Amino acid sequence: MRLTLGHIDEYDERTATFARQLGLGSVQLHNPTNLSGTDGYWGEAELRALRERCESDGLRLEGLENVPAANFWRIQRGLPGRDEQLDNYRRTVVNMGRAGIPVLGYHFITTYVWRTRLRAAGRGGALVTAFDLADAGRGNALAAYKLTPDEPVTEPITAEQMWAHHRYFLDAVLPVAEEAGVRLALHPDDPPVDVPLGGAARIFTSPAALAEAARQAGGSPAWGLDLCVGTVSEMGGEPAVLEVVDRLGGDRISYVHFRDVRGTVPRFAECFLGEGNISPPRVLRHLRDAGFTGFVIDDHVPAMVGDRDTWADTSSEAYVSRGRAHALGYLQGVLAALDAD
């Protein structure tokens, strides 16, 4: 188990320097601006160049996460044109394997992550995001975020349809991923509410649903879970997080997003590590004891005094923040203590 600088939207000298100053040896990138995807997929040459650029900075590229929404939304909704998008997704997977990038995170949140406030007041006035189902009818405060599809849902999508779309995706992609040596990693639905948001049902909303996703994958070594601790904490606090680890085991968890919230659905707010629903040391110890040996990344963080924003700004200037340094330092301390045990 190792700590990685993750969820980077724009890899540049600033983010590379930030990782090195924090003593980290690897990075994970999130739909990075460094990749064009102009033909509907990521090309081998640009993927290889990105990996080599990270390595020239002394950093290993652990994996990528989330292709552009424009290349994936028909797959999620089961619409005409999804087979073309699946062809392109398979091209991305093959090219990642050839370029030596082993993990590709994905989500099946048709209308993407929802928040009802982006600048709620956290500890000491730090800015945090929040969700309240009672306010969801006013729309998604993250509607302008780059991974929120521009196309509205015109016909309601049921949970049964979403499960069928996910199986269709896995059946089409997993054999190629196995051959390419690339592992796909599913992110749970955030927020994990059992009512539609934006016209589409959410299905990966409980530990049992995540176990069902693993069953759909049929034992394929090319499928795993991106354990977003914060999202699972939204489901039911620390007991839900520990249940997911127990249900899937360390070998099925590809990597971990480590953040937390205060409260659970239908109402919660993001927060600093150590003041939310979970005990970070207990969760990390549980992962270690379950045999998890992947990487742990920082995730959403509060914006502290002098920081630019929470989610609205994805530039490297906003990313390299006091809030992120605090989260990473906290996790380094906990992992060091566990090693001392």
UniProtKB/TrEMBL annotation:
Lineage top rank: taxon: Bacteria
InterPro entries per record: Man_deHydtase, Xyl_isomerase-like_sf
Reactions catalysed according to its record: D-mannonate = 2-dehydro-3-deoxy-D-gluconate + H2O
Keyword annotations from UniProtKB, A to Z: Iron, Lyase, Manganese
Pathway membership: Carbohydrate metabolism; pentose and glucuronate interconversion
Requisite cofactors: Mn(2+); Fe(2+)
GO BP annotations, alphabetical order: D-glucuronate catabolic process
Enzyme kind, highest EC tier: lyase
Residues that span the membrane, as ranges: none
Molecular function terms, GO-annotated: ferrous iron binding; manganese ion binding; mannonate dehydratase activity
Keyword flag Manganese: yes
EC number: 4.2.1.8
Pfam families: UxuA
Function: Catalyzes the dehydration of D-mannonate.
PANTHER family referenced in this protein's UniProt entry, alphabetically: MANNONATE DEHYDRATASE
Similarity comment: family membership: Belongs to the mannonate dehydratase family.
Name recorded for this polypeptide: mannonate dehydratase
UniProt source species: Actinocatenispora rupis
Lineage summary: Bacteria, Bacillati, Actinomycetota, Actinomycetes, Micromonosporales
